[in-house]
């Protein structure tokens, strides 16, 4: 695997890990399970694609097809993370509240109603725009730092080859 992929995966892992302390600071609730969840601050989707796009821009240049593809797909991923997936999450909130309302109505009826209640749908699917931006900033930083360290590796390997 190339260094761009490694850096993008590292960025995704960092974003997922940062969700735990950020959530704790906001809600005073320790939730290690957020590492494996979707949604929240920062967006790991945005972090991953931003890292890869930054790394490609610095390594290959802004005028390359590689950068253009990464940028366009990255923008689509970020738009989707805060658009379609967020709307799905909001719709899920409404469906879950309707289920609670139906349960309350059934409890008031004298007739016994037995139905296996469905699992509550996951509500935190998408991102707020600031969560996407936070992920993008994290991704750009990881891309810059990663490129800096890989640039040193390339210079060292060229130096070793000369001797």
From TrEMBL:
InterPro entries: DUF212
Naturally occurring in which organism (per UniProt): Neobacillus thermocopriae
Protein name: Divergent PAP2 family protein
One Pfam family from the record: DUF212
